[in-house]
Amino acid sequence: LSEEEVIGRLKTLVETGIIKRLGLIVRHHELGFAANAMVVWDIHDDQVGDIGRRMAELPFVTLCYRRPRRPPDWPYNLFCMIHGRDRHIVLAQIAELRGALGLSQVPYAVLFSLRRFKQRAARYRASDLQMAGAG
Amino acid sequence: MMDEIDRRLVNLLQDGFPITERPFAELAPQFGIGEVEILARLEALCSDGWLSRFGPMFDADRLGGATCLAAMEVPEEQFDAVTELVNAHPEVAHNYRRAHALNMWFVLAAEFPDRIDQVIAAIEAETRLSVFAMPKLEEYFVQARFEA
To answer: What pTM value is reported for the model?
Structure first.
């Protein structure tokens, strides 16, 4: 491939969203984001899309997904990650989030991480067929 | 330590960078430094351990791959042994101990969706514990970046 073609293909991959983001990935722990909490919510099914979209817009929410409930062990269907420099900041951000989105009556749980065992970048291999389709 | 220019570089480049022949030459004017210095700063940020990498974050689903969050309730006395069994699988991308009855949370990343189910079945057989698969049903796109 020529350099020009590589650049063109990269642009296409970013524009089509196959590459979600092309840039630098920080080590958030080293940047001082020492506390991370997975906060899980039991949101009415007909409201979860709207609440999830609004939650994702908050500046301290770093991931936000809808996932299946696993009753009776696990009633929660909306998950977000909040990273902060310490636990007090994270807890204050959760309080702010509950107020901003009107979730004071909604069951939720805060799962702080206690220890990280393993972290690596995920590796994927795209099949030739799908890559051709993307180009 | 990072100086003000490093911080601005880190904050800007988390969002992306121009995909052109000389991206850093294009960025240089707004930082008041040259292309060579930007590259040197990024290399230093990498080697000093501030950055994990510079490159693409793929949408795994659209590459035909799959990811899945999974959780387990691991009895305290088995925790270390189970951690070792789970982390031995190359599909386990990261694994956190969390403060909850479901105390082990890990992400599986595989090249094919079927592989996720296979790994979960293998972990359940090896540990004799249940694995709760919690695949994403919908993703809400976040704006947040880690401010340096």
So the answer is: 0.80
